[in-house]
Amino acid sequence: MRTRVKICGFTRVDDAVAAAKLGVDAIGLVFYSASPRHVSITQAQAIVRALPAFTTVVGLFVDEHETMIRDILAQVPLDCLQFHGDEPPAACRLYGRPYLKALRIKPGMDVAELAASYHDATGLLLDAYHDGAKGGTGQCFDWDLIPAQLPLPVILAGGLEPGNVETALIAVRPYALDVSSGVESAKGVKDPAKMAAFITAVNNFKI
Ligand SMILES: O=C(O)c1ccccc1NCC(=O)[C@H](O)[C@H](O)COP(=O)(O)O
């Protein structure tokens, strides 16, 4: 089965449409005001409206208030929610929507135990831990910290770019890859050539 690709942090309609034309499986919209890739509801609506059928739209939140998430859900047709903060399982289940739980990996974490507590998530997104930022850092983490067996599909994130796709796929064998900085020319501005190179590297990977 081909490894799925999610590209996160779109702020511009044209970039998202270009990604969809390249065959990306999912696009991520960041509803976290501290992120340089944060989108307003109006921006998000414009991006979603422009996308062709069968492109999954993931809305990303970091320890957001329930009322704010419900307000966004009422106005933007999101297919899936991504919780990228310290949300407990009950907070992820409030909306009756498919969700991904992001874990920011650092030594000493019990990844398997955490994964089990989010058993109803549709995927576990494993990202790099960083003291000063919640995500989109462009930094890899030590993939040896990923347990061999996890109960959920693994979406590998953190410092991926076209040049390390093959190494990541060989080392981790994830269900999907997630990338943001590695396909950008500036924060929130995706580079069509880098997106194409990333997706080509995934498509060219043979076990
Ligand atoms: O992208 C952001 O700015 C961001 C901010 C706060 C929390 C999460 C954020 N992004 C989450 C993602 O899914 C990124 O794609 C993931 O962190 C990987 O980013 P990168 O290392 O830049 O490829």
Describe what you observe in this structure.
There is one protein chain. The chain is α/β, with parallel strands linked by helices and 207 residues long. It has one domain (4-204): TIM Barrel (Alpha-Beta Barrel). Helix content is 30%, strand content 22%. It contains seven helices and ten strands. The chain has an eight-stranded parallel beta barrel, surrounded by four helices. Helix 1 packs parallel to helix 2 (41-50). The model has no long low-confidence stretch (mean pLDDT 97). Bound molecules: the ligand O=C(O)c1ccccc1NCC(=O)[C@H](O)[C@H](O)COP(=O)(O)O. The ligand O=C(O)c1ccccc1NCC(=O)[C@H](O)[C@H](O)COP(=O)(O)O is lined by residues 8-9, 28, 30, 32, 35-37, 60, 62, 84, 127, 134-138, 157-160, 178-182.
**Unreliable sequence segments:** none
Order of helices and strands: EHEHEHEHEHEEHEEEH
Examine the coordinates and then state which fold CATH places here, giving the name of the CATH topology.
Answer: TIM Barrel
Biggest pleated-sheet summary: 8 strands, parallel, barrel
Helix content: 25-40%
Quote the distance from N terminus to C terminus: 10 Å
- What's the helix count? 7
| Cα radius of gyration in angstroms | 16 Å
CATH architectural designation = Alpha-Beta Barrel
Strand content: 15-25%
**What is the CATH homologous superfamily assignment?**
Aldolase class I
Number of domains: 1
Query: What structural category characterises the helix and strand content?
Result: alpha/beta
